[in-house]
C-alpha cells in the first residue's frame, strides 16, 4: 500500500500523530519556537531560546541545514555547501494521464523536469479530474525562466503521448535551498564536521 502525505497536510502527522506518540513515550515536545543557541554538556544539550530561557535535553536530533546547526553551536564550517532550488508547477487535468503510477520520473536529458507527483492517485480525483505537481530542480532560482520551463514540460510530455486532454496550469512555487549538493570534494569534510558536533 503506497503511503503519502496526508490529505489534511503534514501538520496532521507532525502536530498530532507524531507529537502525541512522542508525548505518550515521555518525550517533551516544543513546536513553533526559535532556538538561540545550543551548548553540548557532558550529558545532553543545553538549548537557549530567544527569551533567554534554557532547557536541557538528553539527546538532540537535527534535521536543519548543517550551517545552521554549526551556527547554533557557535562553530563555523570551513567549507561552503552548495544548494539547488526546487521549482514546482501545479496542474489540474481532465483526460488520459498515459501512466498508472503515482510518481513518474524523467530520466531523459531533453527536459528539465524530474518528477510528476500525481496526488489524485493517492487521494482520488477532484470533480472527475486529476491533479499533480511537477518538480524541476534548478541551479539558480534568480535566473530561471518560469514560462520556458512550463512550456518545456508541457511539450515534452505530449511528445511521449502523456497527458492527452485538458491540462490546466494552477500556479507555481520556488523553494530555495531545497537540495544540498554533497560533492565528492566535501563529503569527508561534512562527515568530519558532523563528528565534531
Could you explain the architecture of this structure?
This protein has 197 residues and is α+β, with helices and mostly antiparallel strands. The chain has five helices and eight strands; from the N terminus they run αβββαβββαβαβα. The strands form two sheets. Strands 5-6-7-4-8 form a five-stranded antiparallel β-sheet. Strands 1-2-3 form a three-stranded antiparallel β-sheet. A hairpin with a 5-residue loop joins β2 (45-48) and β3 (54-57). The two termini are 39 Å apart.
Strand portion: 25-35%
Total E-strand runs:
8
Task: Give the spatial strand order of the biggest sheet.
Answer: 5-6-7-4-8
Number of helices: 5
| Biggest pleated-sheet summary | 5 strands, antiparallel
Low-confidence parts: none
Question: Structural class, judged by helices and strands?
Answer: alpha+beta
Distance between the termini: 39 Å
